[in-house]
Amino acid sequence: MSTSEIDPSVQAELNRLRESIDNIDAAVVHMLAERFKATQQVGRLKADHRLPPADPARETRQIARLRQLAQSANLDPAFAEKLLNFIIAEVIRHHERIADETGNGDGGEPGTGAGALTGA
User: Fold this and answer.
1) Which residues of the chain fall short of a pLDDT of 70?
2) Cβ 116 vs Cβ 42: under 8 Å
3) 3-state secondary structure at position 52
4) Which of 12, 43, 85, 108 is the S-S candidate for 98 at Cβ 3.0 to 4.6 Å?
5) Backbone angles phi, psi at 50, to 5 degrees
6) Contact partners, residue 70, CB within 8 Å, separation at least 6
7) Is-contact 84 116, C-beta < 8 A?
């Protein structure tokens, strides 16, 4: 079925829903940008004080907390955890880069742990 064959009222509703999705996507991108601004500051602080890029204990606490939030929001906790792990890995990569750039790398294994979820 082509777009021209769809009932105009159905097409209007589809367009309305898609516009809402587009707005939500834009908000998610902006929220992630703000989050990464904050984690960049954490990365600089960690590098300045020779702290490791990750805090596995904090990661464990945060994942558990965010899985509970996902469940209460009717979002699949496993999906939320996968998404968060992806974000955490990126934050740690940034922290490692910052540490390398400042000459304050901790000598730990790159990419291990993931406690930087909320700036741990």
Assistant:
1) 3, 105-120
2) yes
3) coil
4) 43
5) 55, 40
6) 76, 77, 79, 80, 81
7) no
